[in-house]
Write a structure and sequence with these properties.
This protein is of the alpha/beta class. Helices cover 22% and strands 34% of the residues. It folds into three domains: 265 residues, Spore Coat Polysaccharide Biosynthesis Protein SpsA, Chain A; 68 residues, no CATH class; 105 residues, Jelly Rolls.
Amino acid sequence: MIPVILSGGSGTRLWPLSRGQYPKQFLPLTSEHTMVQETMLRLSGLSGLKSPIAVCNEDHRFMMAEQLWEIGVKPAAIILEPVGKNTAPAVAMAALSAESEDNVLLVLPADHVITNIESFHLAITQAEILAKQGYLVTFGIVPTHAETGYGYIMKDSIQQGSAYKVAAFVEKPDLATAKNYLKSGDYLWNSGMFAFTAGSFLKELEKLNPEMLSVCKQALSAAKTDLDFVRLDKAIFSTCPADSIDYAVMEKTDKAVVIPLNAGWNDVGSWSALWDVTDKDAFGNAISGDVLTVDTRNSYIYSENKLVTAIGVENMVIVETKDAVMIASKDRVQEVKQIVDQLKQLDRSEAQVHRKAYRPWGHYDSVDSGERHQTKRIVVKPGARLSLQKHHHRAEHWVVVRGTALVTRGDEQILLTENESTYIPLGTVHRLENPGVIPLEIIEIQSGSYLGEDDIVRFGDNYGRV
């Protein structure tokens, strides 16, 4: 069985923690591990698992690779989508990449929480048996309340082993309809998790959406392999129909079955959902970071950088990051997306990136900026190096505050240690690297007429960014 990790979501409802370039699946929201790491770790103990296939946005490739590496997972492939086309093409790419059409694919979104691992493993074992019999299996969550934020699966009365035939997939209901669904006992929440053989899925896709399969085959055939990454051809893949696996296949096939799953599942799709799955104090508050409260109840309060205090509030969400503060009533957190939409309309960077930006070589934090200057704190991992590059509009001063820096500046190379510095004139080809065994930290002061990140001309790069 091959785990297929789908990591295409942007997680806008968890802004300002989750952002376009650093979405929720790469954040440690419920434990010391990130959500994509938890997705893999909870499979530990299942027998016969092969190396996973991950499908993610091209911009997230290094985060995916590094986070899997951190937990000792070597993926069979990381398939990079140059444009988002929803889940059906993503799963098709994974199925086409499987080493055999007889392999069972266990399709898992990268950003879910499951607390009852034993029940989850039992459902997977049952699903594997059905998948090998040619069924397309989905996992339906046994509802605990009348939820309007999820789609539902109506199960048929006909059982197939431990599963039921799927009678219908239904859209997110209003509250009255959701209450009727809950009362009937015939409806399950749609989890977005699946199990089927690669061959069974491709056969159904060819029958139900041949155009999609044809484009996927062409895009994969023209793909380029770079390290662990499979870079799909953008021109071809852009022509692929965009559709979810539900619409493209599961709603139309006669081979769909659903296994009821009661395993403490949560898709962490909002701040209130995150509050649900986070440990709380005696007053019902879920607190992270430097937070003090007085007469505060049933709230989620997160501090990344500053002391946050709350007095006399209830059912609130308060989230502080280095560049944004978000305050919302807990029953209106679904509207966070409207703030993100406004940020995008205003072309503000806070919609896409944090002040602290992650790169394959490390990260940087933009600590100060003005009209003609910008100051960054840069951290380079041991053995890593930035691209060989130059800038047309800015000069840079570098001061080493920790570790050792090997600096390429024009035709010379300079070794700098703590409290030493260098100057990179405008237009000079340069590179920064860390030859040491501890992280390298420098302060970079930029000055010039234009300080945007797109003022980089790369001549050489370890990470395929030339």
